[in-house]
Amino acid sequence: MNSSTQKMTPEMFEPVAKDTLAQEGVASKKITFWGDVWRRFRQNKGALLGVLLLVIIAVLAIVGPDINSYSYRATNYEITNQETVGDHWFGTDGLGRDIWTRTWYGAGISLLIALLATGFDLLIGVPYGCISGYYGGKVDNWMQRIIEVLYGIPNLIVIILLLLWLKPGIIAIALALGITGWITMARVVRGQMLKLKSQEYVLAARTLGASTRRMLTKHMLPNVLGPVIITVMFSIPTAIFFEAFLAFIGLGIRPPQASLGVLINDGYQVLQLFPYQLFYPALILSLIMLSFNLVGDGLRDALDPKLRQ
Amino acid sequence: MSKVEPKVEKILEVEQVKKHFHVGRGQLVQAVDNVSFEVYKGETLGLVGESGCGKSTIGRTIIRLYDATDGDIRFKGKTTKDLKGKNLKQFNREMQMIFQDPYASLNPRMTVGDIIAEGLDIHELAKGKARQEKVVELLKTVGLNEEHADRFPHEFSGGQRQRIGIARALAVDPEFIIADEPISALDVSIQAQVVNLMKKLQREKGLTYLFIAHDLSMVKYISDRVGVMYLGNMVELADSQELYDNPLHPYTEALLSAVPIPDPDTEKRRERIILKGDVPSPIDPPSGCRFRTRCPKAMDICAKEVPTWQEVRPLHWVSCHLYQEESLKKEEGMK
């Protein structure tokens, strides 16, 4: 073959118009990553409604029990099982306790347990996933086998055994939920780490000689934050729901303390006689679950890199 | 195009390098197998070959992103195999890399200033005001301006991002830069811009490039010498003009025949050599010469013996039985 006719001269590769610095300007306003996320999150009306509901519920959970004059544990046998009497806005239960106060008190306990459980999730799951994904190879292989074994044990059994040993309380329930729940978090983080590890900007940092610490803090963790937040938003309602379930089978917070699950269980006992006793705690539980899911969905859409560019 | 001139100083020597990957079930991908070449100081060596031929793998092995399975890589006379601590840091400053995908090669959570200054931070080359000044200087070197420093990568175009990647590599004042398909993800108009920037930087800073690509005309434009790879082997290496004028290896011939010629009259007469079949799997490469299954000139000996890497003309290396007298004699014997 004869390609001597195929002459390439430097002139052929000169740009038609010379570049000027002015042409390189970026016209748009400076947008940070979180600014961009907020811009997209804002457009999601459902997610905003979720945030609003959560704020209202959180505020009421904090100040709600103090709005009227009743304590969550004060009994009054004169007015048991009254639907509305005086300023008992949600009525009273079988011991004459104020359901408004107990509902918000219980919502607070439920949220606290869920937040603590998610905290344990993060505490165990994130480092576990990080190490597994970052080091890879044999380390990863062993750590994943351990996870698979743990995943094979029904978590209800683990929780029941733990609660028998620890005696149900806020910390004990949160710990039991965290110990069984971190696996999802670890898997999410590991998956992200594996993905990020082969990204070119991570390779670039390696060729520059970045230390492991720098790699993790500057390049890996900021980029797994999105999926971790999404996982948190979905694991909080799961924890609340599971706590309610535990209370329902009699493993919940001990009276006179209450959580939403305990209240629902109490209300369920008298469902046919006094349905309002089940209604209010169940409504609040549903609203909490709904709003966390709405916010989680919104965040996922706002953070999802696939929608970017 | 530059003439073949004896360039004395070897900056990089790659000797019989192998890189194999385990892909499970005891299977082995022989991504790079027995590749040897040298890079001289101040030159640009182009590496071409189709996707999956191991050209990126060899680049990443040279810069120690992968550890070579076998063989030796010497940078400035010293083996890179067991670099540690201080020496490794020094090596990281002297050799840098430009990556293929401008959308994946910049951390989306860091500002452009921090991305460019990463090398400065890691090696503690500049702090505070000096760091700021150096960042601005680097931005200007690649044709961007200082306002860009506190913006984020997603606000830039592909070409701009690629230049930010170049600035990051330049921050540590490297001598040798591996460019792993730096232009294949860019529009044609921007490709010229980036390549011209790379040429300008080479002139000004005396850089040495290993330029990995699959665009033959672009490789010819930027490279002093060109190596052709096929299925993990280097099949031919020569001065770029020599390679394009007198390709020896049948694979190089076929590859070059696929390049369109920007002249309608000659283009009409261009005959393409169409290779039969697909590239075999690197898990189970053909015996003997790896190209024999698709080679239009394959002989009996090609299946039996691996061709040796020989300099058949001055500075023109090829790995093919057609150009080895001993092999041709043996082939006669077989008949």
UniProtKB/TrEMBL annotation, chain A:
The chain crosses the membrane at residues 46-64, 104-126, 146-164, 170-189, 224-253, 273-296. Its main location: membrane. Gene3D superfamilies: MetI-like. It is a multi-pass membrane protein. One of its GO terms (cellular component) is plasma membrane. Residues 107-296 form the ABC transmembrane type-1 domain. The keyword Cell membrane applies. Keywords: Cell membrane, Membrane, Peptide transport, Protein transport, Transmembrane, Transmembrane helix, Transport. InterPro entries: BP-dependent_transpt_permease, MetI-like, MetI-like_sf, OppC_N. GO terms for biological process: peptide transport; protein transport; transmembrane transport. It is found in: Cell membrane. It comes from the Bacteria. Belongs to the binding-protein-dependent transport system permease family. OppBC subfamily. This is Oligopeptide transport system permease protein. It comes from Marininema halotolerans.
TrEMBL record, chain B:
Residues 12-256 form the ABC transporter domain. One of its GO terms (molecular function) is ATP binding. One of its GO terms (biological process) is transmembrane transport. Belongs to the ABC transporter superfamily. This is Peptide/nickel transport system ATP-binding protein/oligopeptide transport system ATP-binding protein. It holds the Pfam family ABC_tran. Keywords: ATP-binding, Nucleotide-binding, Transport. InterPro entries: AAA+_ATPase, ABC_transp_ATP-bind, ABC_transporter-like_ATP-bd, ABC_transporter-like_CS, Oligopep_ABC_C, P-loop_NTPase. Coiled coil: none annotated. SUPFAM superfamilies: P-loop containing nucleoside triphosphate hydrolases. The keyword Glycoprotein does not apply.
